[in-house]
Write a structure and sequence with these properties.
The protein is of the alpha/beta class. The protein is built from seven helices and seven strands. Strands 3-2-1-4-5-7-6 form a seven-stranded mixed beta sheet, sandwiched between helices. Helix 4 links the parallel strand 2 and strand 3. The C terminus is likely disordered.
Length: about 240
């Protein structure tokens, strides 16, 4: 009998589909990258989610975020994401926190979380996510910079200490080394940042539909493969 995950089952097997169904993933940040992580995970069969984001959908999100439509402008991203997940898989269980994750944030992760996906923008929040994940021994993958990029084929998944070019990755390497954190799985781009056409005022990074989406789907794919023990071996990076 066919179901919505029949095609996935043909690829990875019934046991792995069941494993994904019982897995719980926390996605922190639901922007251009995080929204596509959610999309990739729910369609792959992940059955339990914790979504964390303070923002509401803005008109400037329409160029790159799958949650953004004319109808969702002004709505909390966590609510839009939850509704989308349940529209795809009504059996999924979704917890939401409409807040910015920062070092002073309360404990939001526990032993029920199988994986943490970091899609936030600020370095302090990213570092705190890694510190908490390592302390709790929860696998984590972090997105590096996707702004001011035009080439989606330049992304790769590797350890933070093997990255180059990306300015955000450079800062993260320094901060993690200072905290004696020896490893972190990341998605990053080898593309040199494109110079913005903005001439004055606050420098807002440019973006386009086909770059953060690729990074997000790559992250979703890595999470799925790790959850079914077919991805980059987490045991080599756990400490």
């Amino acid at each position: 009998m066919q179901n919505q995950f029949s095609r996935t089952e043909l690829l990875i097997g019934k046991n792995c589909v069941e494993k994904l169904h019982h897995s719980k993933v926390a996605i922190v940040g639901l922007g251009g990258v995080g929204s596509y992580v959610v999309e990739g995970l729910v369609r792959a069969g992940v059955g339990n989610f914790l979504l964390v984001d303070k923002d509401e959908v803005d008109i400037t999100n329409l160029n790159r975020q799958i949650l953004a439509t004319q109808e969702t402008i002004g709505e909390p991203k966590v609510e839009v994401a939850k509704n989308r997940i349940l529209a795809i898989n009504p059996k999924a269980k979704v917890e939401i926190l409409q807040e910015f994750f920062m070092p002073e944030s309360g404990e939001i992760f526990d032993e029920t979380i199988d994986y943490i996906v970091d899609c936030v923008d600020t370095v302090t929040a990213k570092i705190e996510l890694v510190v908490r994940a390592k302390k709790l021994q929860i696998p984590i993958i972090s997105s590096m910079g996707t702004g001011n990029k035009l080439e989606p084929t330049k992304f790769e998944i590797t350890d933070i200490y093997k990255t180059s070019v990306c300015p955000l990755a450079k800062v993260m390497r320094k901060e993690l080394k200072a905290r004696n954190i020896p490893s972190l799985k990341v998605v990053y781009s080898k593309e040199e940042p494109v110079k913005s056409t903005q001439k004055e005022g606050n420098q807002v990074m440019g973006s386009v539909s086909f770059v953060p989406s690729v990074a997000g789907l790559m992250m979703a794919g890595e999470v799925v493969k790790d959850l079914i023990n077919r991805g980059f071996l987490w045991k080599d990076m756990k400490k």
